[in-house]
Task: structure prediction
Amino acid sequence: MPEIIARLLYWWTAAFARLPWSWLRRIADALAATWLRLNAREARVARRNLELIYSDLPLAEREALLRNILRTTARQLVETTRLWTHPHARNLKMIRKRTGEALLDAALSNGKGLIVAAPHYGNWELLNQWLGARTALAILYRPPESAIGEAFLRRVRAAQDRTEPDRVTQIRAEGPGIRELYRRLKSGGVVGILPDQQPKAGDGAFAAFFGLPAYTMTLLGRLAERTGATVLFAWCERIGDAPEFALHFEPAPPGIAAPDPDIACAALNRAVETIARRDPTQYQWTYKRYTLRPSRNPADNPYRDLGR
Result:
């Protein structure tokens, strides 16, 4: 049954994504305005994050930034419906610029394995498709709570054109999946990780992120240390008002593979923060990044009064 419902959801999404870009953009802008007007979860969480990290910014400027973040978030959501339901080769034409591609070529040719760290910035789904067109890739994901949601996610991330090679393998962020990542890297493979999701308790360490302690995954650093794989940060950054993007690759900062998890997590967060500061409106501020606090006291959760 979940597969059937997921298939129906896919066809509904595909029909919606056939609308002209100008219509989709207006729908996204209306959605963002609705979030703000109704004080929806997206607006509440993003506003709290801005209060935490931009506390010195005047209220009027924070609210203006919030409006831009919600508009960009809604556009990214609507763009993704088309990316998920159109042939990848067509989607990749939206990438107008590429920088640091030589770093990727070198990492793919050295046979030591490659970890692509892709923060929630710009459009990471387009990045996945571009990487999948270049090389076999395993991406780590946290499965949705709903079986329907997981079936839908697996469906939309597969190649949409049967003539295209489907070289992206989705691996659940669980014990067997983590062992599979080690195996792939040891054999010189490529692994993609979203490095800025808050891990489960016991799977992370606190490191500064925009000046605040954020519970940060230790997995990426462990993988790099134990396998000797190269780590590159990558992102697809929206440029202009049209759905066009610039693809970027940068080397990870020193310390990313340090045996000390505190050093490795600090390096990871420095890299993510540097990318997010390029254009804060393109970062995923609708995510509760600071839920776990060093005190381990639930009362210190800054989102506790916002509801689900």
